[in-house]
Amino acid sequence: MQIYLDYSATTPTRPEAIAAMQAVLAQQWGNPSSLHEWGQRAATVLETARIQVAGLINASSVESIIFTSGGTEADNLAIMGVARLYHAPQHMIISTVEHAAISESARLLERWGWEVTRLAVDAKGRVNPADLAAALRDNTVLVSVIYGQSEVGTVQAIAKLADIAHQHGVLFHTDAVQAVGRIPIDVDNLAVDLLSISSHKIYGPQGAGALYVRPGVELVPLFAGGGQEMGLRSGTQATAIIAGFGVAAELADQEISRETPRLINLRDRLFAQLADVPGLIPTGDLEHRLPHHVSFCLESANSKKLSGKTIVRQMNLAGIAISAGAACHSGKLSPSPILLAMGYSEPAALGGIRLTLGRETTTADVDWTAMVLKQILQRL
């Protein structure tokens, strides 16, 4: 029995997206910047996909969608695109539980003289809005807080945090890669200035993403070139991949009202079945949580015998794909920085595991996974 429970890492490309990509590769392969018929066919594909992605996040301006190579580039365009507006270093704010695309960008800016405040989170992984208000300065130009944390599933109070930033005239960005397509999102109601999306998290192809840029927000592009994507992302667009992204976005929008409750039921069922396992501690906020996300840490983890990586390997031998939070560098495990930021001990932070559900996950999958995980933990 093969069960895939790593949908936060990537999702399988849905057949409708593959069909759209194949059609473009066969029939609409022109350069979308060309003025002739072949180019205009490709340009129509791009603009259709832009409408589809805008619809998923209820963006009123279609031109607010800037296609990128994925979520990482979208994050970098947001952070560096704002930073490059300034000749002198300024101040920005992120949280301690950001994706590496944000945290590493911030680290680079620090090497260039910028000041970066990293907001602490509570034991559930949430930012306190009062902490954001207290951290804002006269020279703060950007706040970036992740929408749904990929390792522990916690969802932040993005609308409230964005409002606080705007009260001080500061731009607000959120990495919504894990949230888009799983939580209904309306960028106008959220009032965010910048929002990152990834195709392969919503059953589209790998290699495509988008940055939502609120009308009126200025960015300096990362690349010099032909000025594609409203001048913000030069380079000939990957039309076929973007077409698949657009189809996946449209279908996610159509399905979210029934798929999200289904995932929540499966998620809660898996949590309930594992609630009595000794030493298996749920991580993240169980109330403000991504609908597909289940995560734990092992109270007695250690780098020699029992770690999240050990559990991943054992589950893989049983035909079940999950993931771990601790990273392996040169053969040595290092604790998850996300769990450390949430106050977990180093041993516990070596034992983080994540099980993320998706369109193909069934009740039988959840029940079987719970049984297998219990048996593995008993054996170890």
UniProtKB/TrEMBL annotation:
Domain of life: Bacteria
Pfam family, one: Aminotran_5
Domain Aminotransferase class V: 3-367
Cofactor: pyridoxal 5'-phosphate
Entry keyword set: Iron, Iron-sulfur, Metal-binding, Pyridoxal phosphate, Transferase
Signal peptide location: none
Gene3D superfamilies, per the entry: 1.10.260.50, Aspartate Aminotransferase, domain 1 (3.90.1150.10), Type I PLP-dependent aspartate aminotransferase-like (Major domain) (3.40.640.10)
Reactions it catalyzes: (sulfur carrier)-H + L-cysteine = (sulfur carrier)-SH + L-alanine
Keyword Iron: yes
EC number: 2.8.1.7
Listed InterPro entries: Aminotrans_V_dom (IPR000192), Aminotrans_V_PyrdxlP_BS (IPR020578), Cysteine_dSase (IPR016454), PyrdxlP-dep_Trfase (IPR015424), PyrdxlP-dep_Trfase_major (IPR015421), PyrdxlP-dep_Trfase_small (IPR015422)
Protein family (similarity comment): Belongs to the class-V pyridoxal-phosphate-dependent aminotransferase family. NifS/IscS subfamily.
Name under which the protein is recorded: cysteine desulfurase
Organism encoding this protein: Calothrix parietina FACHB-288
